[in-house]
Amino acid sequence: MFKVRLYGDPVLRVIAKEIDPESLTDEFIKKMSETMYMDDGVGLAAAQIGISERFFMYDAGEKLNVVINPEILERSSEVELGEEGCLSIPDIFEKISRSLKIKAKYFNRQGHEEIRVLEGYEARVFQHEFDHLNGKLFIDYLSTVKRRLLKPKLDEIKRRSAEILKEMRNLSHKRN
Ligand code: NI
Asked: Using CA atoms, how far apart are residues 14 and 24, in angstroms rounded to an integer?
């Protein structure tokens, strides 16, 4: 299991780099998906486990999809409001507007290119995870008023985030 990085961790704000689509091992994918499922997550991006690379995984209810170096080729102008949360921002759920339909291109876990049209909930999850690759979080879409209301909760998450980083730093010192 990986440690999930929380809001306030600078790694969540980095624009991630493309990777070799064949570089992810089965063992790594297994460990990352366990991290996602354990926390009841629907999606998990590499940044959320501290890796600044362009890949994420999600399971919108059907199967585990591994998405590498994705591009969103088209987004419908028709949008839909839907509730979102994020493993990196625990216990905050807010309605966010997303394109109802998207056309995406990416490499799957076998390293094969796929072009797919996604709709509804799956399109929402994809857009949310895609944002993570560009250092963007769902709360960035909220109004200033809404964010001000959430500030106490967000500050608490930031505090926990700093603790996690400190713990990890201590661990790596011990190892060296
Ligand atoms: Ni997220």
From this structure: 20
CA of 127 to the centre of ligand 1 (A): 10
Q: What is the pLDDT of residues 83-100, one digit of tens each?
A: 999 999 999 999 999 999
Q: Would 135 be classed as within a structural domain? A: yes
Interval 100-143: pLDDT, tens: 999 999 999 999 999 999 999 999 999 999 999 999 999 999 99
How close is the Cα of 138 to the center of ligand 1, in Å?
A: 7
- Amino acid at residue number 89: I
Looking at residue 175, its pLDDT comes to 63
Note whether residue 112 is domain-resident.
yes
Alpha helices in the chain (DSSP H): 26-38, 120-133, 144-175
Is 129 part of the annotated catalytic residue set?
A: yes
Domain containing 82 equals 10-175
> Which of 74, 122, 129, 167 is flagged as catalytic?
129
Span from the CA of 86 to the centroid of ligand 1 (angstroms):
4
Tokens (6 digits) for 31: 């460990």
Which CATH number is 153's domain given?
3.90.45.10
Number of domains within the chain: 1
